[in-house]
Amino acid sequence: MVYTVVPGPVFKHDCQECSYQMTIQAPNGKQADLYLCPKSQISQVLARYGNEPSEYTTLAEQMGAILNNPSIPELPTLFPAPSES
Ligand SMILES: [Zn+2]
Fold first, then answer.
1. How far is the CA of 25 from the centre of ligand 1 (A)?
2. What is the pTM of this model?
3. What per-residue confidence (pLDDT) applies to 57?
4. Inter-residue contact 24 to 46 (CB < 8 Å)
5. How far apart are CA 33 and CA 8, in angstroms?
6. Do the beta carbons of residue 45 and residue 56 sit within 8 Å?
7. 82 in a domain, yes or no?
8. What is the 38 CA–ligand 1 centroid distance (Å)?
9. Is 61 part of any domain?
10. Mind listing the pLDDT tens digit of every residue in the chain (85 residues)?
11. Closest to 19 measured CA to CA, from 31, 1, 37
12. How many domains does the chain have?
């Protein structure tokens, strides 16, 4: 299963530091906006999947679950591991 890139962003995001990257949509219609956040300590990529402030994740596994498919092969590429430096 693969996602498709759709026009966005489709959700409100409350962090001024983030730069919008793209919006992905799973075959089931669920969408997520992807941002690069320079302030995040866990990962520089976050995915917003709703308009509530808490409706975002920085984990590829969680994003896969939200999109109802933990095995989307592209997700690890979208959420690279934090560098050791
Ligand atoms: Zn941010």
1. 21
2. 0.76
3. 87
4. no
5. 7
6. no
7. no
8. 6
9. yes
10. 577 889 999 999 988 889 898 998 888 888 999 998 887 666 678 889 999 999 998 877 777 777 766 555 566 566 655 555 5
11. 37
12. 1
